[in-house]
Design a protein that fits this description.
Blueprint: E1 2-5, E2 10-11, E3 44-48, H1 53-64, E4 68-76, H2 90-98, E5 101-106, H3 108-116, H4 129-147, E6 151-153, H5 167-176, E7 183-184, H6 196-199, H7 217-226, H8 243-254, E8 270-273, E9 279-282, H9 286-295, E10 301-305, E11 313-315, H10 321-333, E12 343-349, E13 355-360, H11 365-371
Parallel strand pairs: 3-4, 3-6, 4-5, 6-7
Antiparallel strand pairs: 1-2, 1-4, 8-9, 9-11, 10-11, 10-12, 12-13
Helix pairs in contact: 1-7, 4-5
The chain binds iron/sulfur cluster.
Iron/sulfur cluster (SF4) binds near residues 5, 8, 129 and 237.
């Protein structure tokens, strides 16, 4: 499962694989349309569609004006929850409801690099929103020619988010994406300079909006007017905006574990930092136990309880015997045997056939809390 943005919610994956890399030439140039002659522009736009209310409304406003829409959704493998219930992402649900074509891009690899080293820094937690949006819009710009679109649309609202939706940030984002004049934000367009689709008459500025600030009431009222009653609860952004999750990501970056192979582990279970190399992850319930099992890799130590039901747990980083014992005592703490003198734990090295066992004293609460992330 995935975390995505625009503007951010959860989703699934489908492909659009013939994409060029965002660092290809002309990133800071304008779209291919001649800036002095816009007669070749048409009423077709790429809309960044996360599936959240803002992007749904931005899409709807374009459709109401007769603009043909191709929806674009960016996903990164950070989350192992989310779309399980319905089997489809919020963007897929929204695109179905709106009747627009949806293209989804998995940008996990590039997202990891953006999170590690954003040019414009992180927000309150570890969310690199300005860089992230520049990235997505650069890719949207690259796709304009392929999709036959003349401009790009987002559901951004001036002042809705402290980092990336300030006026100066909105300006930086459109400039750095190479979309100055070609990026339309219908929900707050009247508070911004007119864009080329507006001045060229492709879009009626009078029908665009002037929503500002963090309250979602205007959007909810608009949704009601459009008869849209199914949309995700407004969230503050992706998982990276969550302080607890950000702590795990910072830890993973510090210990060089923030990579494609292990990124999905970050959103599952309880996490314990045991050494520079070793981290223990313990499932909190059956669902997480199953997810953890699907994320193990060769060389991981896998723990199970010998004498009672217990969590699935993974110890990473090729640990030695002492470390396995320490981890086993933490696993024992998270079972019914927490208060016994000793507990028997079974474990194996993933990729090998033999199962081993050891007796441990369940860890004390202070030891558990001392290494918990
Ligand atoms: S980093 Fe910011 S812009 Fe990117 S997905 Fe997360 S909340 Fe959205």
């Amino acid at each position: 499962m995935w975390v995505c943005c625009g503007l951010c919610v959860w989703g699934g994956r489908e492909g659009w694989h013939n994409l060029t890399h965002p660092n290809s030439p002309q990133l800071d140039s304008q779209p291919r349309t001649n800036p002095h002659n816009h007669s070749d522009m048409n009423k077709k736009a790429i809309v960044l569609l996360s599936g959240g209310l803002d992007s749904i409304l931005a899409t709807k406003l374009m459709l109401e004006q007769g603009v043909e829409v191709v929806a674009l959704n960016f996903m990164a493998k950070l989350c192992m929850c989310g779309a399980k219930k319905t089997g489809e992402s919020a963007a897929q649900t929204a695109s179905r409801m709106l009747g627009v074509t949806l293209k989804t891009i998995d940008f996990t690899k590039d997202f990891i690099e953006i999170v590690k080293n954003p040019e414009y820094g992180h927000g309150a937690n570890i969310n690199p929103c300005i860089d992230c949006k520049i990235y997505m819009l650069r890719r949207a710009k690259e796709l304009m020619g392929q999709a036959g679109a003349s401009f790009v649309v987002t559901g951004e609202v001036l002042g809705e988010r402290p980092m990336s939706q300030r006026k100066d940030a909105l300006d930086i984002i459109q400039r750095q994406a190479g979309l100055k004049g070609f990026l339309l934000r219908p929900l707050c367009a009247k508070l911004l300079d007119p864009t080329i689709p507006e001045t060229e008459g492709l879009v009626d500025r009078e029908k665009l909006l002037d929503i500002r600030g963090r309250s979602r009431k205007p959007q909810m009222a608009l949704a009601k007017k459009f008869g849209i009653d199914k949309y995700p609860t407004p969230a503050g952004g992706c998982l990276l905006t969550d302080p607890g999750f950000a702590r795990r990501v910072k830890d993973a970056i510090k210990y060089n574990e923030f990579d494609e192979e292990r990124i999905a582990l970050l959103s599952v279970g309880r996490h314990f930092r045991l050494s520079d190399k070793n981290k223990l992850i313990i499932g909190r319930d059956d669902k997480e136990n199953i997810l953890l099992e699907s994320l193990k890799v060769k060389g991981d130590i896998i723990f199970n309880m010998a004498d009672c039901p217990g969590p699935y747990a993974i110890l990473t980083g090729l640990p030695d015997e002492a470390m396995i014992k320490t981890a086993a005592s933490l696993v024992a703490y998270h079972t019914k045997l927490r208060n016994v003198t000793t507990a028997k734990i079974t474990y194996w090295v993933e990729g090998t056939d033999s199962t081993l066992s050891l007796q441990v004293v369940p860890a004390a609460l202070k030891d558990v809390e001392g290494c918990r992330l």
